[in-house]
Amino acid sequence: INFFHDHALFVLMMITIMVSYIMTNLFFNKFTYRNLLDGQLIELIWTILPAITLTFIALPSLHLIYILDETNNPLLSIKSMGHQWYWSYEYTDFKPQDFDSYMKTTENFEFRLLEVDNRMVIPFESQIRMLISSTDVIHSWTIPSLGIKVDATPGRLNQMSFLWNRTGLFFGQCSEICGANHSFMPISMESISPNFFMSW
């Protein structure tokens, strides 16, 4: 990341210096050429030079995007599958465990349309990789308070990773219209300490 920052800053400084030099010369020279109607050569130059400059910025940027997209040694991988109209989760890193997560009917002291019978549980301060897909139609696995929104598309496995640094209970909902009961497939995630997670 530092290399790309220095590289991009160097290119921007060169552009700034060159444009400043040209503008200064334009302000202070007294030469004019009133019969100049077109300049094919100069137009070719100011089209090709920015294209080359953008290439020098784009190539390291694309390389960096692919590097950042890879999750380095996640502690836990969780697979989430969207169904009409519930979520299922698979934990395979420790002891294999999978369960379905349905919306609960509201009882005392519970959040209406957000509480589920089986919460997804994660350890905090741990790198988590989510693999998200769907079995029927397009869903969207979303937890707004974490800034997470990933589409669950049939036949495609989308990946995202996050690192959460506090305990708590976080709610979300499917945010892609997926049928009649779209508003009744909530997501409930509980973040607990790693010690409690190992005994969960």
Automatic annotation (TrEMBL):
BP-aspect Gene Ontology terms: ATP synthesis coupled electron transport
Residues spanning the membrane: 7-28, 48-68
Catalysed reactions, as listed in the record: 4 Fe(II)-[cytochrome c] + O2 + 8 H(+)(in) = 4 Fe(III)-[cytochrome c] + 2 H2O + 4 H(+)(out)
Family of the protein in this entry: Belongs to the cytochrome c oxidase subunit 2 family.
Cofactor binding note from Swiss-Prot or TrEMBL: Binds a copper A center.
Keywords, in A-Z order: Copper, Electron transport, Magnesium, Membrane, Metal-binding, Mitochondrion, Mitochondrion inner membrane, Respiratory chain, Translocase, Transmembrane, Transmembrane helix, Transport
Membrane topology designation: Multi-pass membrane protein
Quaternary context: Component of the cytochrome c oxidase (complex IV, CIV), a multisubunit enzyme composed of a catalytic core of 3 subunits and several supernumerary subunits. The complex exists as a monomer or a dimer and forms supercomplexes (SCs) in the inner mitochondrial membrane with ubiquinol-cytochrome c oxidoreductase (cytochrome b-c1 complex, complex III, CIII).
Record protein name field: Cytochrome c oxidase subunit 2
Gene3D superfamilies named in the record: 1.10.287.90, Cupredoxins - blue copper proteins (2.60.40.420)
GO molecular function per UniProt: copper ion binding; cytochrome-c oxidase activity
Cofactor(s) listed in the protein's UniProt record: Cu cation
Domain Cytochrome oxidase subunit II transmembrane region profile, first and last residues per copy: 1-72
Residue span(s) of domain Cytochrome oxidase subunit II copper A binding: 73-200
Organism lineage: Eukaryota, Metazoa, Ecdysozoa, Arthropoda, Hexapoda
